[in-house]
## 1
Amino acid sequence: MKQKFITLAALLFLALGLAAAQAGEITPAGRHLAETLEAMHVEQFWLAGYHVDWRTGVSNGRTLQTTNGHTHCSAFAAAAAEKLGVYLLHPPEHSATLLANAQQDWLRGSGTNQGWRSVVTPLEAQRLANQGNLVVVTFKNSDPRVAGHIAIVRPSTKSGAEVLAEGPQIIQAGRHNYVSTSAREGFKNHPGAFENHQLLYFVHLLPPPSMAAQ
C-alpha cells in the first residue's frame, strides 16, 4: 500500500512538472499571435497623458489634464481584439473613462454571449495564449471612481514556475507601455491586485491563422 502511494505521488509530481514545462511551449498559431500584437507598436502609440484614437493609438498632440495622466490600456486591448476579429467593449458603446472596469463587467456578462469565457488559472491563461488564442487579464477597481486595468496575455516561453511566481507574460498600454512584461509588473500600479489574486482572466478562442485569412 505504501509503495502504491509513493507511485501515485510520483506520477502526480511528474504530471505537474510536465504541465509546468509545457507552459512555455509556443505553437505556430502562438507565434503568429505574438507577431500580430508586436506589429501594433504599443510602446510608440497609446501613450499615457495624450488624446489618442482608440483604434490606432495615434495622438492628436493634445494632452489630457489629469492627476496621474490618462492611460489607454482598455483602448489598446479593444484595438488588439478588433484586429484579431473579436469584439471587446469599446467606445462609443462605453466612454473611454473607466472603460477597463466596464470591460471586466462586460466580459463576465454580455461577453459570454460573444465567445468569451473565464479562465481559472494563470497557467491556463498562458497556455491558451501560447496556442494562439486571445487572452486578457483584468482588474476592476473596488472604487467605482478609480480606473482599473486590462492587458493582453502574450505568448511566452517562461516556465510554469515563473508563471506562478510573476504571472503570465503580457503586452499592455498603461502608465508605462510594454511590448512584453509580467502581469506582476504590469499591474504594480494597483497595489495588492496581483498579490491578492484579484486579477481575472478571459479567453476568446481564435481560428488558426490560415483559416482566419480565408
## 2
Amino acid sequence: MPAHLAPTAADEAAVRAIPLRMADAWNRGDADAFAAPFTENADFVAFEGTHLEGRAAIAAFHTRIFAEEVRGTRLEAEAKFVRFLGPEMAVLHATARVALAGQDRPSPSRDSMQLFVARKLGTEWRVEAVMNARRLSLDRQLFLDALDALPPAGRKQVEDLVAALTRPAASPARPRP
C-alpha cells in the first residue's frame, strides 16, 4: 500500500479505543453510547447468538439487558490487535470480561472474544460488524458435552447439586439469652 494511504498511529489508536468506549458505556448502563461506534446498518452477533441488525437494534437490545439481565455488571475490555486491510478498513480482535453484580472480579464463565470489522468514514472509525463469542476452555467444553449427554434426570441432579452448593449457607442460630 502506498505510504500516503497507509493507516497512521492515530488510526490504530482510534480503532483500539472502540471496545474501551463500549465498555465505559456498558459500565454506565448507557445503551445509546454503547451503540454509538456502530454504523447505521452494522451487524452485531451477541455471545449467545442473537443477531442484531443496525445501530437502533443494538441500542434497543442493550437498553433491555442493561435494565434486566446485566444490570449492575461491570465490563472490562482490551484490544488485542488491529490488522488493517486497507487505509479505511480494519479488523480488531478484543476481549471482554464481565464481573457480575456484587462481584469484585470478573467471572471466567463470562469471558468473551470479539472480532470487530471497522471502517473509516471521513475522519472517524466506525464498527460495521462484531462477533462476540464466549471464551471456553477445552476442559469446560468437555464438561458441558458430558452434561448434555446425561439423561434429563441426571442433568436435573447436577443442576440441583450446583444450586445447593451455590446457595448461601444458612445463618447459624443465635443462642437465646
